[in-house]
Amino acid sequence: MILLCGVDEAGRGPLCGPVVAAAVILDPARPIEGLADSKKLSDKRRDKLALEIREKALAWAIAEASVEEIDRLNILHASMLAMQRAVAGLARRPDKVVVDGNRCPQLDVPCEAIVKGDALVQEISAASILAKTARDAQLVELDRLYPQYGLAGHKGYPTAAHLKALRAHGACEIYRRSFAPVHDIIANPPLWTDEDL
What we know:
It contains eight helices and five strands; from the N terminus they run E-E-H-E-H-H-E-E-H-H-H-H-H. It has helices at residues 43-56, 67-73, 75-88, 117-120, 122-145, 151-154, 160-169, 180-187, and strands at residues 4-10, 19-25, 59-65, 96-100, 111-114. Strands 3-2-1-4-5 form a five-stranded mixed sheet. Helix 1 (43-56) packs across helix 5. The mean pLDDT is 95.
């Protein structure tokens, strides 16, 4: 049996928090119904599947690259680093790795990039679900520490409400300073906010 490992990341687009990657080797003897691209699933369905993946997979690992690493390396290279760390964290060594997207991280096992792989390959779907649920949980936790930004709602993505909160409160240490909206607000802080008026 070839041990196939699926890899995916979550959190490339948000303005804050780490980028999170997951690696999953599924067990053919214990199939999981309903695996799909994590973005197509409801929060409740994702959470339920994440528990099942952790219970039934032959091996799984979650890893991340920090905000500091994202700013130092850029988001693409930080995503690749998080993927490398996830594969390295597996309890079993895969024979082959398949990654969602068009680029592979540098690994010591054969690797193939598959565009829209999170919708096409069950192992990548499973990795996508683990990465997304792990990162969402982190953002909910960050929301408790920094309630002024509304992170639990938008998960760090640059929504109008998030950008407004960022302009009003400035960027704290969880923000990616290399991302244009954050960089622009740091470089040109508002002279006053709506609350001052």
